[in-house]
Design goal:
It is a single chain. The longest helix has 20 residues. With 561 residues, this protein is an alpha/beta fold. The chain has 16 helices and 15 strands. 35% of the residues are buried.
Amino acid sequence: MIRPCRRGLLSSVSPELGRSLFRRTFIMDGTVRLIATVPSGLEKLAVDECKSFPGCLSAEHIRQGKVELTLKESDVNSVRQLRSIDNLFVVVSKENNVFKDNEEKDTCLRTAEDLAWQLDFTQACRVWKSFTGYAHHVRVAEQFPGKPAVLPLPTAAQFAVPKASSKSTISATVSEVTSAESTSPLDERQRVESASEPATADVEKTCVEKTNVEKTCGAAGHVDHTEHSPAEDQDVRACLTENNSPQLRTSTDEQLSNISDSSLSEAAKSLSLEGEVKLSPVSEDDTKPSTTEAAPLVPGFRATCNRAGMNHTFTSMDIARVFGAGVNDRHHWRVQLTEFDIEVVINVIDNYVEVSLALTCESLHKRNISHFGPTVLRSTICNGMLRMAAIQPGDIVCDPMCGVGSICFEGYHAWSHAAYFCGDNNERALENVVGNVRDLSSGRAEENSGGALPIDGYQWDVCDLPLRSNCVDVFVTDLPFGKRVGTKTNNKTLYPRLFRELARVCCLSSGRAVVLTQDMRTIKTVLKDNLYWKLQYQRSINIGGLRAGVYGLKRTDAPVL
């Protein structure tokens, strides 16, 4: 009996019709939808970059920090070239009105579990495998209208190491154990053949016939409490005493010492220790590797839920638990919460549910930096700031407070037609810049894409730059927030001197600057009625939970006296 989902994707149609509708919508057109995370506040700039990407069919800002791309499945791997995205996810499905406000928790969890059975992961897994380069086969079951009352049993080929059949009685022979082991990839190891002596077999047969030892000493530990006559009990004791004689145990132990523990299954070990079976050494034929192909590896996965809404009777952990259970029951992937292969992400926003697979294991914003400092600006934020500055061919771009050099590295990768140099007053920061330049240059040499990066670094005082006047076209920098570096009290003195010195070095009329700071009160005071800089735009962004501002400035014609 099948329990359909009340408000699922296929709740009102037959399984065959539902599968055909799903494939017609998402697979036959050959397109795929990706969701990219971008810095909050820079979504519009990320959309502009995605639209300029050759393989992108459409791009739109769907919610805070998220951009959705539609492109051909064959162009998914080239999305790595986008510089403004942090993480990538391939969309499995989007569902509206899945839950109701203040709905009972059990009903919501049952709906979420049914949803895991209804969705088709075929295209998403194919895209994930192509993007990540996963070498093994990923088994994906077909859609189902809901979780059935009786779960279908998986086959042995779906697991990396199929489980051997459990022994039913203590008198099972080693040949039965080896036959169960022959279905697993461990066939390449040594196998154990049964070689019970006739005397031992006769004793075993007598014990089985007279006393039903199978019930008394079963593998599961069950004991038969059926009453026996004194004569039968005496026969049992005689059989067990003869079986456990010192001579037999010594013979068995000597033969076991010649066999490696890895070549014995748990069942064979337990049988040999009881003295029921006498094992012989492994022959040369058994040491030859088996030609049987190993079963394909099963990917490990974890389910992660992100929830937003006030009228939910469940938690994100509840949804992750039941949805992950449904995926495990349906596709038989291994549950692996750490070091997993596939991450299934469920985003629940009010009554809207979005299911996707993570394509990136870690954020792409770390691609330029190998030497970190106390404050490292994400490369995606650097890309947005440089995009605001409208870098032109031949421009001279300077970061006067560079830290580890994130802005210059990102600028060279995205706008290589400009010249970049940077500086800082901290000697340790310049050592990190040199280390990052060395690592990036060695990576370029290995890829045959060029030699050393043409980026220079200097140690200087930002309020007294060793540069001539009117020589820099663009300043792009991250100012001290007054938290980890400096204080907001010191910023009241630093910011006025800083902007005056930048105005002296920057080109008149055509010069521009893009600065980032969290001390927005101080910078607004400095820029108010400023003779040298004119505020053109301001964007509010989120950096690690802090609300910061990006300010675009234009150099006026007023000379610095």
